[in-house]
Design brief:
The radius of gyration is 16 Å and the shape is globular. β2 and β3 form a beta hairpin. The chain is α+β, with helices and mostly antiparallel strands.
Length: 201
């Protein structure tokens, strides 16, 4: 597995995943191209055997104290292996490099698996947007992360020597990888991308 920053050259592969994961409200190629080219955006992709299997995006205006997680998407065949958490960590690391203080996202109220992933990284619920996800009439849960606290916890954890069996590598997935899993997190469908909290990991 190779993770690297995305470029406009990845647009076709990203859009194929976007339409497969969010068929009812995928972003348009023009919207995604704008995000990839924006100096305020930072996207990362995951490749396996030369094929793009995931991507994630951050909007962090340079010099601003806040940033937004735009999307996290993993192909159905590549889910359940920790890639979603790895992409989230890559976005948070970039936000830290940009000296962001707080990171926000929106997640579907009917997706407890995604919520569990975000909670496990330190995000907390700070509000709701009724019927935000259309055409499904699903509320959005707005979540916030104190990024400096997150970074401090990572540093502390890295400095503590292992004292027992390694923690399980089993990741928290996002999206309907199996029938009992929740629905994917769609984007807002607005003309300008905003925080969406959408993700299939």
């Amino acid at each position: 597995m190779a993770t690297r920053p995305a470029t406009v050259a990845d647009l076709d592969g990203i859009m194929a995943l976007e339409h497969a994961s969010f068929p009812t409200d995928a972003w348009s190629p023009a919207m995604m191209r704008e995000e990839l080219a924006s100096p305020h955006g930072w996207y990362v992709v995951v490749e396996e055997a030369g094929r793009l299997v995931g991507y994630a995006g951050l909007r962090a205006v340079r010099g601003a104290r806040d940033a937004d997680i735009q999307t996290i998407t993993i192909s159905e065949a590549a889910r359940g292996r920790g890639r979603g958490r790895a992409l989230l960590t890559a976005l948070l690391d970039e936000a830290a490099r940009r000296q962001v203080h707080d990171v926000f996202l929106e997640v579907r109220a009917d997706n407890p698996v995604a919520q569990k992933l975000y909670l496990s990284e330190g995000f907390v619920e700070v509000g709701r947007r009724p019927r935000y996800y259309q055409p499904d009439d699903v509320d959005a849960i707005v979540m916030q992360l104190d990024l400096r606290g997150w970074a401090d916890r990572r540093t502390e954890a890295a400095s503590i020597p292992a004292s027992g069996p390694a923690e399980s590598d089993r990741p928290h997935g996002i999206g309907p990888a199996a029938p009992e899993d929740p629905n994917p997190l769609p984007s807002s469908g607005s003309a300008t991308p905003t925080t969406t909290g959408k993700g299939w990991c």
